[in-house]
Design brief:
Mean pLDDT: 68
Shape: flat
Number of helices: 11
Largest sheet: 2 strands, antiparallel
Low-confidence stretches: 139-145, 193-200
Radius of gyration: 53 Å
Strand order of the largest sheet: 1-2
Order of helices and strands: EEHEEHEEHHHHHHHHH
Keywords: Receptor
Organism: Cladocopium goreaui
Distance between the termini: 142 Å
Protein name: TNF receptor-associated factor
Oligomer: single chain
Length: 349
């Protein structure tokens, strides 16, 4: 029997056992991962399951750190994203611890050494009756006090972005001595009111730190930008309203043209000789010839003649022959009046 080499594991075996070897014994045969549904070889299935599978459950590397003690578990493909959040959380906790240490009350001063010289003996004085206790006055509200409504908004803001409430309080309230006023706090809160997932915690911390280092000039420039934006929007709306008003006035002045109107005809002004010929009395006999300055009258006559010819060319209406009101005698035709008769009548008038 001849021997052959397995194409997957390069092992040699008899030719008749090759098919059975590739199905059940070969370490290089492809198998599917049950977790990620990926393809690997039979010999590397355990290595893939422990180290290469993107869906395998992993622990946060900071779980053994005593300062952080992160208890996150999840798929390996999300580990890098979690490490960024875990790093920001570690920075938050470190900054909070520093702030708590700086805000802690200082230890009292060391007691002074006792005097060695003898003190004079003073007779005891009679004790006076204690005055009635008065109610303590309410604490004076400072300009930068943290209102209850803003505290609730800040808590909601911290929960929305996954930040520590103490961090938000330190950032927004702990820098009062550096000049952070309530309007600036409102601008900062408004700056980050966008859909979740667009502003990570690290960006919020960097923004606040840059505001502190640069004297809050970013907050002031942002407020100026808001005012400038509102002014531009008002100016744009006013300009559009004025343009619409001007356009409406211009359209009202121009008369609308008729859709069936043809080309504009040239106006004909009769001359003095033509007016005199029309006004002069005519003697009986042949009508005098009109001057050539009357193209409008000739045009009217030609239009009337063309209209009469078009009416005469129209075919009779369709329908069965028979007596009809159309077949009866028509109206009395109007006698045609010539131009000479018109001029003669005008002369008589």
């Amino acid at each position: 029997m001849r021997s052959v080499e397995c194409p997957d594991c390069q092992g040699r075996m008899r030719w008749k056992n090759l098919e059975e070897h590739r199905k059940s014994e070969c370490d290089g045969r492809p198998v599917q991962c049950e977790v990620c549904k990926g393809t690997t070889t039979y010999g590397k299935r355990q290595v893939h399951k422990d180290h290469e599978c993107p869906e395998r459950e992993v622990l946060c590397p900071n779980a053994a750190d005593d300062k952080i003690r992160c208890v996150w578990t999840g798929p390996a493909k999300d580990l890098e994203k979690h490490m960024e959040q875990c790093k920001s959380k570690a920075e938050f906790q470190e900054m909070t611890a520093r702030f708590a240490a700086s805000a802690a009350p200082k230890s009292p001063a060391a007691p002074k050494p006792k005097q060695l010289a003898p003190t004079p003996v003073v007779p005891p004085r009679p004790k006076a009756k204690p005055a009635p206790a008065k109610a303590a006055p309410p604490p004076a509200k400072t300009e930068n006090a943290w209102p209850l409504q803003q505290e609730e908004e800040a808590k909601a803001f911290a929960a929305r972005w996954g930040l520590e409430w103490c961090l938000v309080k330190v950032k927004l309230e702990g820098f009062l001595e550096r000049g952070l006023s309530p309007p600036q706090r409102e601008l900062i809160m408004e700056r980050f009111q966008c859909p979740p997932g667009h502003v990570p915690g690290g960006k919020f911390v960097k923004y606040m730190d840059s505001c502190v280092e640069n004297g809050w000039k970013y907050v002031q420039s942002y407020s100026e930008w808001l005012a400038d934006r509102e002014e531009k929007l008002r100016a744009k709306a006013l300009a559009e309203a004025r343009a619409a008003e001007t356009k409406a006035k211009a359209a009202a002045k121009v008369a609308p043209a008729r859709p069936d109107a043809g080309p504009k005809e040239a106006s004909v002004t009769p001359s003095k000789s033509f007016k005199a010929a029309l006004a002069a009395p005519t003697a009986p006999g042949p009508a005098p010839a009109l001057p050539r300055e009357a193209p409008l009258v000739e045009k009217w006559e030609s239009l009337a003649e063309a209209e009469r010819s078009e009416v005469s060319k129209k075919p009779p209406p369709p329908g069965p022959p028979g007596p009809s009101w159309l077949s009866g005698p028509g109206p009395t035709p109007v006698p045609k009046v010539t131009r000479a008769e018109i001029l003669g009548n005008q002369g008589e008038l």
